C-alpha cells in the first residue's frame, strides 16, 4: 500500500477545521431535529391518566383484603415520580385514595433498607390509635415489618441493627423482614448476604418475631441457613387467634415464616413446607406472568390428595404439644398455605388489564401496583388450582393464613 503525501494538507489546516465545524453543526442540528420528533411523538401518546389507578368499589359483601407485603412509602415515591402534579399529596392520601371502597382490612408495610429510613416511625406512629387509623388510613389496620434486604446486606452494621431492634418494640411491628438471599442480582457479596441473614434470624428467633424471607436462586443456602437458625419447634405466640382446631396442635410449637414472592422451584418450596409446618408461600402478581411457571406449580402441589406420597423431609416434623410425633399425612396437601401480597409498587397482576375500567389502556401498562389489586391475584390463583375454589375462597383462606402468620 502506497500513501500519497499532500503538502497542501499541512499548508491549509483551516480547510479541515472548517469541515469539522460544519460536520459538528450538522450533527447538532440532526440531534435537535431528532429530539423534536421524539417530543412530538410523545405528545401524540398521552400519559396514562392517574384516574385509572382508582378502581370501582367492590361489593360490601366481598371478602376482606389483607396485603401481607407492600412498600407504602416507595409506592408513594413512585407515584409522585410518575405524576408530579398528582392529586394525592401525601402517603396517607394516596393510600386512602386507592383502597377506599375495597374492603382492605389490613396491610403489612415492609421496610428493608440500610440505613433504616427515618420515615418509618412517622407512618407507624400514625397508626397507633384507632382514631388515627380511621382518619389517616381509612380504617385499615396498618402494621409493619423491618429488616435488611439481601441487596442491602453490604450496608448492615451495628447502628442499622440497633435501629431495627428499636423498631421491633413498636406496637405496630409484626415481623422481622424482609431478609434472605438473592443470587440473581448479587448486589451484595454472597458471604455477606449469608452472614447478615443468619445474624438477623438469630435476633428474630430470640425476640419471637415472625419472619419475612426473600430468596431467589439461592435454594440450597436459604434452606440450610433457615434450618440451622430457626428451630421448627420455636414458639412465636400462643395460637389464640387460630380458628381451625384440626391444625391448632401444629401451630403450638411452630415458627411463622413467610417466604415472600416465591418464584423458585416447587421442590424447594415443598421441602420448606414439609420442614416448617407453619410456613407460608407469598403470592404476588408475578404468578400471572408467562415467564414464571414455578409459582403456579408450587400452589398446585399443595392441593394434591393426602394419600399421595410426600417428601421424606416430613420425617423431621416437630412433635405436637402432647409430645407425639406427627405422621407425614398430618398436613393434608389440600390446605392452601399461601399469603396474598402485592410487593407494591412492583408486580402489577397481568390479568388486571381485562378489567372493564382499564379497557382504555390498550397496550399501555399501569405505572404502579397497590393493595386494591390483590383480588386479581386471588382470581388467577383460583384458576390455576382448578379444584372448584373461587377467587373469594382464595381470599378467605389467605385472610385466615395472614391471621395465623402475623396475628393480624
TrEMBL record:
Superkingdom of source: Eukaryota
Cited Pfam families: TatD_DNase
Where is the segment annotated Disordered?
A: 301-330
Q: Give start-end ranges for the coiled-coil region(s).
A: none
UniProt KW keywords: Hydrolase
Alphabetized Gene3D superfamilies for the sequence: Metal-dependent hydrolases
Q: What is this protein called?
A: Uncharacterized protein
Tell me what organism the protein belongs to.
Hohenbuehelia grisea
Amino acid at each position: 500500500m502506497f500513501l500519497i503525501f499532500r503538502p497542501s494538507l499541512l499548508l491549509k489546516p483551516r480547510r479541515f477545521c472548517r469541515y469539522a465545524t460544519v460536520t459538528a453543526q450538522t450533527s447538532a442540528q440532526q440531534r435537535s431535529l431528532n429530539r423534536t420528533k421524539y417530543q412530538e411523538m410523545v405528545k401524540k401518546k398521552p400519559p396514562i391518566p392517574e384516574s385509572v389507578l382508582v378502581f370501582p368499589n367492590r361489593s360490601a359483601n366481598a371478602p376482606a383484603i389483607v396485603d401481607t407485603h407492600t412498600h407504602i412509602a416507595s409506592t408513594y415515591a413512585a407515584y409522585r415520580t410518575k405524576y408530579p402534579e398528582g392529586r394525592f399529596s401525601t402517603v396517607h392520601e394516596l393510600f386512602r385514595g386507592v383502597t377506599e371502597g375495597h374492603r382492605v382490612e389490613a396491610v403489612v408495610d415492609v421496610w428493608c433498607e440500610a440505613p433504616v429510613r427515618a420515615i418509618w416511625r412517622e407512618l407507624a406512629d400514625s397508626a397507633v390509635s384507632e382514631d388515627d387509623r380511621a382518619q389517616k388510613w381509612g380504617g385499615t389496620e396498618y402494621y409493619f415489618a423491618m429488616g435488611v434486604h439481601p441487596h442491602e446486606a453490604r450496608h448492615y452494621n451495628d447502628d442499622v441493627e440497633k435501629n431495627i431492634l428499636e423498631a421491633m418494640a413498636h406496637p405496630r411491628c409484626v415481623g422481622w423482614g424482609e431478609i434472605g438471599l438473592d443470587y440473581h442480582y448479587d448486589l451484595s457479596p454472597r458471604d455477606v448476604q449469608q452472614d447478615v441473614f443468619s445474624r438477623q434470624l438469630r435476633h428474630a428467633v430470640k425476640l419471637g418475631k415472625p419472619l419475612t424471607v426473600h430468596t431467589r436462586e439461592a435454594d440450597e443456602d436459604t434452606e440450610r441457613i433457615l434450618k440451622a437458625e430457626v428451630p421448627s419447634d420455636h414458639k412465636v405466640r400462643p395460637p389464640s387467634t387460630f380458628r381451625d382446631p384440626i391444625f391448632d396442635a401444629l401451630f403450638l410449637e411452630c415458627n411463622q415464616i413467610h417466604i415472600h414472592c416465591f418464584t423458585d422451584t416447587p421442590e424447594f418450596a415443598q421441602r420448606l413446607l414439609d420442614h416448617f409446618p407453619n410456613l407460608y408461600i407469598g403470592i404476588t402478581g408475578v404468578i400471572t406472568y408467562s415467564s414464571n411457571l414455578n409459582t403456579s406449580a408450587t400452589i398446585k402441589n399443595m392441593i394434591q390428595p393426602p394419600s399421595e406420597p410426600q417428601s421424606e423431609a416430613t420425617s423431621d416434623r416437630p412433635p405436637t404439644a402432647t409430645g407425639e410425633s406427627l405422621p407425614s399425612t398430618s398436613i393434608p396437601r389440600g390446605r392452601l398455605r399461601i399469603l396474598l401480597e402485592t410487593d407494591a409498587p412492583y408486580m402489577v397482576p397481568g390479568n388486571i388489564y381485562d378489567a372493564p375500567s382499564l379497557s382504555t389502556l390498550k397496550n399501555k401498562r399501569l405505572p404502579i401496583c397497590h393493595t386494591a389489586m390483590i383480588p386479581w391475584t386471588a382470581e388467577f390463583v383460583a384458576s390455576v388450582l382448578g379444584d372448584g375454589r373461587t377467587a373469594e375462597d382464595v381470599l378467605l383462606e389467605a385472610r385466615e393464613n395472614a391471621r395465623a402468620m402475623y396475628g393480624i
